[in-house]
């Protein structure tokens, strides 16, 4: 998939959460290359680095906070006058087994990954229903479909995203709104920073678990997100697209 194969995004407006992370940055860059205007949101102040006058505005806030979701949608309307695409990308992980997971840890992961997704989807839908058009693309994971050890809270949160995607697609399809999710396999990102010494190297070492023999690059997931957001996927809704290098085919 490349710039020439995706059309219909030029002039549209997207809200991208988790924009300061690896997949988020790749998504913002790709959507901008397609001519989209963007509200880039992240809890990390580094999101300000993505600002581009007249094209990309940034917002720093906790994705699981109701006020952040409202402020992000309001920013899109205030700066660009519309909101056409929501990319629910923000997420965090916790590598612990169920017996080792505290209630606080469980709640923190679900607040970011599941509640954050719900809140931003709900606020975006308020706009999309009125305009009778819009697209929501969420980043789930292979662990929303298969079981892996040491990921109890993370897997539960990603499973919630997969099911919420289906419910919203059914509830709002009549309003011209499509809702889909991409489920990546292992992606070479910095998501394990603070957990392991070298997040990217650790994640890259899992390549042998995928039939393609490698893990994904963030730009490859951004490609799928952009396609799902575009009119090229006009008859795709309620889908969980596996971008996992064949992991779930095993």
Let me know the average pLDDT.
95
What is the straight-line distance between the termini? 24 Å
Low-pLDDT regions = none
Largest sheet: 7 strands, parallel
**Beta-strand content:** 15-25%
Structural summary, described in words:
- The protein has 250 residues and is of the alpha/beta class.
- Helices cover 38% and strands 15% of the residues.
- It has six helices and seven strands; from the N terminus they run E-H-E-E-H-E-H-E-H-E-H-H-E.
- The protein has helices at 22-33, 66-80, 103-131, 152-172, 199-204, 218-229; strands spanning 13-17, 37-42, 56-60, 85-88, 134-139, 177-184, 240-243.
- Strand 4, helix 3 (103-131) and strand 5 form a beta-alpha-beta unit.
- Helix 1 crosses helix 6 (218-229) and helix 3 (103-131) runs parallel beside helix 4.
- It starts with 12 loop residues before the first strand and ends in a 7-residue tail after the last strand.
Brief account:
This protein is of the alpha/beta class and 250 residues long. Helix content is 38%, strand content 15%. Strands 3-2-1-4-5-6-7 form a 7-stranded parallel β-sheet, sandwiched between helices.
Indicate the topology:
Layout (H helix, E strand, L loop, with lengths): L12 E5 L4 H12 L3 E6 L13 E5 L5 H15 L4 E4 L14 H29 L2 E6 L12 H21 L4 E8 L14 H6 L13 H12 L10 E4 L7
Parallel strand pairs: 1-2, 1-4, 2-3, 4-5, 5-6, 6-7
Helix pairs in contact: 1-6, 2-3, 3-4
């Amino acid at each position: 998939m490349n710039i020439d194969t995706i059309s219909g995004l030029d002039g549209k407006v997207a809200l991208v959460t988790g924009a300061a992370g690896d997949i988020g940055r790749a998504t913002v860059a790709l959507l901008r290359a397609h001519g989209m205007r963007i509200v880039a949101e992240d809890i990390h102040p580094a999101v300000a680095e993505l600002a581009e006058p007249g094209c990309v505005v940034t917002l720093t806030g906790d994705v699981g906070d109701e006020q952040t979701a409202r402020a992000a949608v309001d920013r899109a309307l205030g700066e660009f006058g519309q909101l056409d695409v929501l990319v629910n990308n923000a997420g965090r992980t916790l590598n612990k087994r169920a017996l080792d997971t505290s209630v606080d840890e469980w709640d923190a992961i679900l607040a970011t990954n599941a509640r954050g997704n719900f809140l931003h989807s709900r606020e975006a839908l308020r706009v999309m229903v009125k305009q009778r058009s819009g697209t929501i693309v969420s980043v789930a994971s292979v662990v929303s479909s298969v079981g892996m050890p040491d990921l109890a809270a993370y897997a539960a949160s990603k499973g919630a995203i997969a099911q919420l995607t289906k419910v919203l697609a059914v509830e709002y399809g009549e309003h011209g709104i499509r809702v889909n999710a991409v489920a990546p396999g292992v992606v070479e990102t910095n998501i394990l920073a603070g957990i392991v010494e070298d997040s990217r190297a650790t994640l890259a070492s899992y390549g042998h678990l995928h039939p393609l023999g490698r893990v994904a690059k963030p730009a490859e997931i951004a490609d799928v997100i952009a396609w799902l957001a575009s009119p090229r996927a006009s008859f795709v809704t309620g889908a969980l697209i596996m971008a996992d290098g064949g992991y779930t085919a095993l």
